[in-house]
Amino acid sequence: MASNTTKEMLVDLSPVIKVYKDGTVERLLGSPHVPPSPEDAATGVSSKDINISPVVQARLYLPKLTDPHQKLSVLVYYHFGGFCGESAFSFLDQRYMNILGAESKALIVSVEYRLAPEHPLPVAYEDSWTALQWVASHVIEKPGMQKEQWLTEHADFGKIYVGGDSAGGNIVHNILLRAGAEPLPGDVKILGGFLSHPYFWGSKPIESETIEEIEQNFLSKFWLFVYPSAPGGIDNPMINPFVDDAPSLSGLGCKRLLVCLAEKDPLTSRGIIYVESLKKSGWNGEVEVVEVEGEDHCFHIFDPEKDKAKDLIKRLASFIS
């Protein structure tokens, strides 16, 4: 913005975000917010916005129904954006959710968690858990309890999934660990989760990396920006699930997991280690991996019309159907 050219910079994490000493936050990436649609012209999916709590919102997506009493799988989705950008109300997220909802015939709850730096981590994790609890609470009968009609009429609470891309994939990992240790309302269980291009990092170099490269890497600086008080810094278990004091992956609270990776994504190497570690952990579940050749981070969100993006979205849809 031209108005910020003379301001004194506090944090410069271009091309994603800048923070000025007067408190101004300039988000450089991201798509504009768009309203929900009673019926998307391209997919027939309906969407609406709801308040989950005074500080947590969501956009709900309902695919076109062949039966007014049809019960659907439920996906609680956490968007990408590095914990500091994008939105459940953005153009990119809405386009993606419309396509995924139409392909999967699932009811989607896309969570609008609060963003850093105004709300540094672990706020997003808490908001994400609040949203999942809210979904699960619809199985409980309490006098005067307000419930969302789409969920009460169409949700199959035996088929609850969580999913996310990039930072959202990181959220899914941490949500699943919490769900494995802490019961949800009504003892609702998560059937499965997908982690697409998940944001994991750490101080230990892998493959051809050096310690100097890790320390100077944008992803290291980024984590410290969104979670400045993180115990252990970039070796906090929430970003580095491979450190000695991280909770065992055997505690993931679901039975099925899909991990999606992209060949050119710098996060892919740690995604592979995540899958290998999960298989060795003793986790009592089934994990599947999809790695797309020749593609980069979140390519399917930015360009969903390309063939490889369509294939990946179909794979995600099949998983949550």
Automatic annotation (TrEMBL):
It comes from the Eukaryota. InterPro entries: AB_hydrolase_3, AB_hydrolase_fold, Carboxylest/Gibb_receptor. Residues 75-300 form the Alpha/beta hydrolase fold-3 domain. Pfam families: Abhydrolase_3. Gene3D superfamilies: alpha/beta hydrolase (3.40.50.1820). Belongs to the 'GDXG' lipolytic enzyme family. This is Carboxylesterase 13. It comes from Forsythia ovata.
